[in-house]
Design brief:
The chain is an alpha+beta fold. It is built from 4 helices and 4 strands. The protein has a 4-stranded mixed β-sheet with strand order 2-1-3-4, sandwiched between helices. The chain is globular, with a radius of gyration of 12 Å. It starts with a strand and ends with a helix. InterPro entries: GLR_AS, Glutaredoxin, Glutaredoxin_subgr, GRX_bact, Thioredoxin-like_sf.
Length: 87
Amino acid sequence: MARIEIYTTPTCPYCIAAKKLLTQKGASFEEISVAGDAQGRAAMTERAGGRTTVPQIFIDGRHVGGCDDLYALDGNGGLDPLLAAKA
């Protein structure tokens, strides 16, 4: 399975929706909370090409984007192949 990292905050509805989709797909993921963590958020922002919102999702090191991006990727059939890839 692919290595999935998702930067989140606890009350973010988009984070919850993204995690729900990944869970429905049977994918395990590493959740990295940036709530109250200025250094963690700065690292996420740099890694995500300047995007400051959560969630920010990475699959095998590739930046997928946020929740809408994840659902769009799933809608066009691109998510399952990424999830099935070997890390």
